[in-house]
Design brief:
422 residues; mainly alpha; two-stranded antiparallel ribbon; 15 helices; 2 strands; disordered N terminus
């Protein structure tokens, strides 16, 4: 990670942490002055949130997930009579969730496990938004009285509150992605909305079921709903483990060219880092970003079939025919995995000159052009190459429209201009 990106991460994280801390401290002060209502429910849901934070995990590379903590917090937001005599007010909800979040994160810190207080602060802000909306739209005399009118009204209010939490989290997440990765805000918001639709709403619906069960059954409700939540979390963790194994396998394949001397040490990783930066700048979707990174890592696999390594791993010194042959062989090798066909297509066209490729064939993915430009820049600027970024950009600029995609080169210019360094 370059220093510029690190600074962005720190800046955005501090803003989210401060916002979460301010909201939490104000809520705690108000709750201390007013007193806590319905202690058994506060303790039960606080324990649920704390346990969920303790067993949080990472599904993707962007953030940790804590579905049990999120569902538990939203469940506490949405509690209503008859079993719950007094519904928790907004301040009490935030205070309980905030203290429970700290109680769950501290053991992870002590144990040396991965933790992310920024993500936990995002959850607290989302819960605060849901609590504020629910309190604003639900009158005090509306509760689960067995009538269809009350049930429909409460369900609608719950859905609106969950949606508020999802929107808050998506907006904060999109703002962070824009600052950290220089991703266009509309693209970042699109990605966050996609994740929210797949995961966020599922956790929100679980929170609604938890609230309804507890409101009607009392403290017998949480155990009945929590068991399926734990099973869901187990499935998520298995999926995350499979993703990590998948990623490790790809990186091991990429290192084979370095071990055999067909690319310089770290060349594939540097090329992939630049390709990801360009992909973020162009606003590619997460699935396309993953394929782009894998293609950049594996772009040199086909060189293993060539007779001799290029001097210093500089594949650009080879003839056009040799590079095309290496790309075709690499794509064929990748296709044999049975699950990376989209990556193979990117690699197959990664050495196509723009004038005779994507300029005349829109079916060729722009990711191929990104890999082409990223590899060229790495070989001009990377370890042992000696060229300055400005000189490398000048060399690449000479090939705009012929060898390199103008859109990708312009994106590279922006990325380098923002301080990207290997």
């Amino acid at each position: 990670m370059d220093e510029n990106t690190a600074g962005h991460r720190l800046g955005s994280g501090v803003v989210v942490l401060v916002a979460g801390a301010v909201v939490g401290v104000i809520a705690l002060a108000l709750t201390a002055r007013r007193g806590v209502t319905e202690w058994p429910y506060a303790l039960t849901f606080g324990l649920l949130v704390a346990v969920g934070e303790m067993i949080q995990f990472r599904v993707d590379r962007s953030r940790n997930r804590a579905p049990i903590a999120t569902s538990g917090a939203l469940g506490y937001v949405l509690l209503r009579p008859p079993e719950v005599a007094i519904s928790p007010d907004v301040a009490q909800v935030i205070a309980v969730v905030g203290l429970a979040t700290l109680a769950g994160v501290v053991p992870r810190m002590i144990a040396g496990l991965r933790w992310d207080m920024v993500v936990s602060a995002r959850r607290l802000l989302s819960v605060a938004a849901a609590a504020a909306i629910f309190a604003a739209v639900v009158p005090g005399d509306l509760y689960w009285d067995g009538s269809w009118v009350a049930a429909i009204a409460l369900t609608g209010a719950m859905l609106l509150s969950v949606l508020a939490a999802v929107v808050m989290d998506a907006l904060v997440g999109a703002g962070q992605a824009t600052e950290q990765f220089n991703q266009p805000f509309p693209a970042a918001l699109r990605d966050e909305a996609t994740v929210a639709a797949r995961i966020g709403m599922a956790m929100g619906i679980s929170g609604m079921l938890l609230a309804i069960g507890t409101s009607l059954l009392g403290l017998w409700g949480p155990p009945l709903v929590v068991v399926p939540l734990f099973l869901t979390q187990f499935a998520f963790r298995r999926f995350a483990s499979a993703q990590r194994t998948y990623r490790t396998t790809v990186r091991s394949m990429a290192r084979s060219t370095e071990i055999a001397g067909f690319s310089s040490p770290g060349q594939n990783a540097r090329t992939a880092a630049l390709a990801v930066a360009i992909g973020n700048d162009l606003g590619l979707t997460p699935s396309r970003m993953e394929a782009l990174e894998y293609a950049a890592l594996l772009s040199g696999v086909g060189q293993l079939a060539l007779a001799d390594p290029s001097p210093g791993g500089a594949s650009l010194l080879r003839t056009r025919a040799e590079r095309q042959r290496a790309a075709e062989i690499g794509a064929a090798v990748i296709e044999r995995s049975g699950v990376l066909d989209h990556v193979a297509e990117i690699v197959r066209h990664s050495n196509d000159p723009y004038r005779h490729g994507r300029a005349n064939d829109a079916s060729i993915p722009v990711e191929s052009g990104i890999v082409n430009v990223s590899l060229a820049y790495e070989q001009l600027v990377g370890e042992g190459s000696g060229q300055s970024p400005d000189k490398a950009m000048e060399s690449i600029g000479l090939g705009i429209g012929a060898e390199y995609d103008p859109v990708v080169v312009e994106s590279l210019r922006r990325v380098v201009g923002r301080g990207f360094r290997f």
